[in-house]
Amino acid sequence: MAKHLHLLGACGTFMGGVAALARDLGYRVTGSDQNVYPPMSTQLAQLGIELIEGWDPSQLDPAPDEVVVGNALSRGNPVVEALLERGIPYASGPAWLARELLRKRWVIAVAGTHGKTTTAGMVAWILEYAGLKPGFLIGGVPGNFPVSARLGDTPFFVIEADEYDSAFFDKRSKFVHYGPRTAILNNLEFDHADIFPDLAAIQRQFHHLVRTIPGSGLIIRPRDCPALDAVIDMGCWTPVLFLHDADSGVAVGREEEGSTAFEVIVAGESCGTVQWRLRGEHNRDNALAAIAAARHAGVAPAVAVEALSRFRGMKRRLEPLGAVAGIHLYDDFAHHPTAIRKTLGALPAGRRVAVLEPRSNSMRLGAHREALPASLQEAERIYLFVPEALEWDGSLLEAELGDRLFIARNMAELLERLPDDLLPGDQVAIMSNGGFEGIHGRLLAALRERHGESA
Fold first, then answer.
1. Locate the Mur ligase N-terminal catalytic domain: which residues (predicted)?
2. N or C: which end of the chain has fewer CB atoms below 10 A?
């Protein structure tokens, strides 16, 4: 009989991926969450994984063989207390994944404050295009794959390496468990103010990751990141490849301003031109890192260039939602000032409009408040949704943003104002790391009603 694995917090992207991988490994998998919600609940249901809503201890009857505990659960939670009282074996998601799967694989880990999901999606697609059939676990759905996690058929496994903590009993970053042979360190800034007191604390976790990479491995990183310089200066035993180094690394050759095509130079030689629909320097840099990682796994850069020219992007990364009366809407996961700035800078020509929900823990706590106005400079109009949970006054931004800023205290107020304000040619970026109360579909519907267009 298959072993029974129960997941607490199964509807998060990471834990949902663990559930799918466990099922493919032959486990009987069940799970629970405070709110059983799509899209992960739908994906898990399609896999035949039973989901329970809430934290009633009865979900542990009969006792599973092991419980995987998501990092959203803490002491005092009824099911956690029952788990500990009954002595049922348990592990964090990252530790379970490392033990059951990653120790046997060539792990390609993508870490950094920004770009993890997109870069991991690019690496997985390059390997797939090259015929290597990798496994992967990514915090989003790559456009070239129908799922966010799979076992794969070869030793290669691509994982989005998150610096958030592992569980209530293991405050190390998730990525410390993964043991990568190839590691991309995209960038490093202060974030996750709910668990890290300062940048130095995050740098220490990144150095723990560096300590786990073998001498025959590879670290891929940008040259112009002082925060990563400090991490490497703590000690490094692995070769480092720099992006934007035309002589020995991976760099950009010919590129027209605003173009979605760029030449790739690897170790001084041209390897072709990526031609795709993605926009922005950040996506170009993500592509360079993905090409370098795939090269370390044995994929020729020219093949990687071909693959990226067929890359469809990621869900919720400047994802086009549609256009009504010449008003173009995009959905983006941006929730850090740097990501917000890069997202706005990547919009096509036109009046740039930012619709922002400051929902992340760091945003809610006010850790990024002072940096927020500068990140919004590319926007000619800014609509800030200020929920009750925000622990600072959104009106503090008015002094720097002036009459470009409109503050909405509830969704009804925002949806009443937006359809009348938007003009033909506007490029509207809707930015949140959550569902934003379904504004995407609701705004499209309101615009269609206003302009007399059908869906």
1. 4-101
2. N
